[in-house]
Amino acid sequence: MLRIMIVEDDPIFLNRFCKIIASDPDMELFAALRDGKSARETLALDAPDVLVIDLGLPDISGIEIIRETAQRHPKTDIMVVTVFGDEAHVIASIEAGATGYLLKDSLPNEFIDLIKQLHAGGSPVSPMIARQLLKKFRPADSANATPISENRNLSGRETEILSLIAKGFSFGEIAALLEISPHTVTTYVKKIYQKLAVHSRGEAVYEATKMGLIK
Amino acid sequence: MRIVVRFLLYFLLNQTGLAWAIVSTESDVQSLASAEFTLDGSELPPQNSTEWRRLSLPDNWNISRPGQGGFGWYRLAFNVQSASLEVQSIYIRKLSMNASFFVNGQFLASGGSFEEPVARHWNRPLYFPIPPALLKPGLNQLQVRLWAYPNNRGGLGPVELGPARILHPRFERDYFVQTILPQLCNIVIFVQGLIALAIWVRRREEAYYIFFFAFTFLWAIRSTHMFIRDIPVPAFYWDIWVQSSFGWCVVLFNIFALRYSRIRWPWLEICFLIYALLGPFLMFLADPIKLHAAASNWSFFIVPLGIFCEAVLIRTALRSRKIEDALVASVWALVVLAGIHDGLVHRDKLAFDSYYWVSYVMILLCLVVGWQQTNRMVNALNQAEKLNLELEQRVAEKHAELKQSFERVQQMEKDTAVSQERQRIMSEMHDGMGAQLIATLEMVEQGDTPSGAVAGELREALDSLRLTVDSLEPAENDLLSVLANLRYRLEGRLTRQGIALNWQVNDIPKPASLTPQSVLHILRILQEAFTNIVKHARAKTVTVATGFDEQRVIIRISDDGVGIATERVGRGMLNMRRRADALQGTIEFSSAQTGTILSLYLPRSSS
């Protein structure tokens, strides 16, 4: 049984999410909360398998909760709920430690599939996010000059997959093209997300050391 | 410094005749001023039979025998004490033009050639030691054979006789002052002139440098007459050259002074030059005997020339208030005085053996003019540096101003861009989502619409909103990522309708610049096409393909549906064409029983 925790301040959506989870035999509701403070308290006691969280909480930033959870419970998969799936929100969440995101108007079955896929080690990605990721991993000093395959922290295969996604190919089409399973493609994406989180944490540590905050 | 003072002292003493007084107290030296003279061309001392006339030295032929030239003999008696073991010598500071010497009828020495051109000794002291064998105790006789040019200050000055140890240093000293020193001055003056020439070559606009160079060059050549003994041309021509070139130098310095003072009187300069050329012309025409009279008449006008120049220089100094200009004026005054002095000497108004002064003052003139030029240049350099500083400062100020106004413009552009963007989004909201939501509201209020249809309309509105949001992200001229995003946004709706998407997107050249505005136009066109397919085509598969030709990028959306009647898409079609026009592109639409094809052509980027 997958234990799902939901943090969402809008009672209608919270209610909807709860119903969807209750409808699936493989999932059970771990907690359903409406603010950051109680979410933080709950997470201090125990870890869910999957945390589904809205960024726009009334008290604490969702990003903050994501960061804390990723630190405290590395095994918990974190999924962000967004209205637009726009890159500003999604990239910030991934950098904080989230590995999945879903659109608020997703159909119940899409919602269930995404959570299961995430728990199985696969992450969703949109072409815009893929493009943004390619940019993020590109060495800063030669933003446009370096061929994508020479990205510092991405393997050749990871870069290839991101490029294809950015051109609009679906996971299925990419899988067929590269002769791997669609699930493998999603696991590549998840690994890339994790790399970005480590990458940005490393940068934060580096910046902090430079500023004398960490000895 | 001490040497200079000593030299100046010697010079002054010699001039005033005091030196003679001091030296003649040395009893060993006899100054022989009493002589006998006879006009005789013979090469050996004439015998007693000739008629000798008693006279006292100096004997200036211009005065004692005007118009007379040629050879004359002098004889002077002197005593030699038998006890003297010292080498005796004779020293003649002044004679003209050449002479040979005999002691007791025996040949002693000669000043050089007596053939034309005769060796020139008019400014060269002569000194000879006397071999003891020629002398006898008691009364001895010195015979001098002298060559004089007529009317050219020929003659013999006092002869001094005494021990070599006293007379030789005296000779050396006078030789230095009269012969070596003018040579040194000449070199300095010449070098000064070369510097002026070098400046003029690089700065042609300051013409006075070339006049100064011409002046120094001419003067340096002319001044050789002070010390040259053997001349290359007959004395007649040499004299014409020496006399005229003095006038030329004064004329050149006059023009230099005028030009330096920024006075441009071309007619005056021409008058000066005519005067300068007139001199040698008159002298050539003159009877050789009267050459010096002609030269004197002409060179008399050099005095007013010099005084005029002095006036110009004083005016310049008064105006500029510069010490160097005042110095030049003062030294030129000295030159004029020296010139007048030399003119008086030349006209026999002063002592026969007087020095000529001008050559010694001229070096001073050249030095102060050199200083004047140096100051001018240093001042100019300083001023240029100051100007540069000011200029830099002004450039910095302008730069700051420009930066400020550039920032203002930038801010204004930014404000404009923000307001344009706001307008764009407003119009999208109004025409797109607003209209859609109102239509949906209508459906809900009528109450008989199935909830699935309402949800479909709402999802479409949400997709529109997402595409609007997506269009805010910079596309970086990447059309493929725009298409990819469209697919991501719309594929869900197609899938739910059971329509498969065939993605045939290949790398394409960049279209002309993709602004958020144009991205949204493209998205709306394609969205409209998809909506039409979903609503009307009843298709199983939709194919999205990209391609390009020489000028255009092509996006093609085709389906395998039943075709869409043009009138059903009329309003949408109109919108699509309007947007394509805004993109400077075109749309081709064809519909048949076997499906519909929509092609969007966009201009390629020129780069």
Briefly summarize what is shown.
By secondary structure, chain A is an alpha/beta fold. Chain A contains nine helices and five strands. Chain A is globular and about 40 Å long.
Strand runs of chain B, count:
18
Q: N-to-C terminal Cα separation of chain B, in Å?
A: 81 Å
Biggest sheet record of chain B: 6 strands, antiparallel
Label the overall shape of chain A: globular
Biggest chain pair interface: A-B, 18 and 21 residues
Number of helices of chain A: 9
**Residues in helix, % of chain B:** 55-70%
For the CA atoms, what is the radius of gyration of chain A? 18 Å
Q: Helical segment tally of chain B?
A: 15
Q: What fraction of the residues of chain B are assigned to beta strands by DSSP? A: 15-25%
- Quote the distance from N terminus to C terminus of chain A: 43 Å
- Average pLDDT confidence of chain A is 84
Structural class of chain A: alpha/beta
Q: What's the quaternary structure here?
A: heterodimer
Rounded mean pLDDT of chain B is 86
SSE string of chain A, helices as H and strands as E: EHEHEHEHEHHHHH
User: Helical content of chain A, roughly?
Assistant: 40-55%
Largest sheet of chain A: 5 strands, parallel
Strands of chain A, total number: 5
Describe this structure in words.
The complex is a heterodimer of chains A (215) and B (607). Chain A is an alpha/beta fold and 215 residues long. Chain A has helices at residues 11-23, 36-45, 62-72, 87-96, 108-119, 127-137, 156-166, 171-178, 182-211, and strands at residues 2-7, 27-33, 50-54, 77-82, 100-103. A five-stranded parallel sheet of chain A has the order 2-1-3-4-5, with helices on both faces. In chain A, helix 1 links the parallel strand 1 (2-7) and strand 2. The longest helix of chain A is centred in the C-terminal third of the chain and has 30 residues, at 182-211. The model of chain A is unreliable at 141-151 (pLDDT under 50). By secondary structure, chain B is α+β, with helices and mostly antiparallel strands. Chain B contains 15 helices and 18 strands. Chain B has a six-stranded antiparallel sheet, with no helix packed on it. A five-stranded mixed sheet of chain B has the order 14-15-16-18-17. In chain B, helix 5 (208-222) packs antiparallel against helix 6 (235-260), helix 6 (235-260) runs antiparallel to helix 7 (266-285) and helix 9 (302-320) runs antiparallel to helix 10.
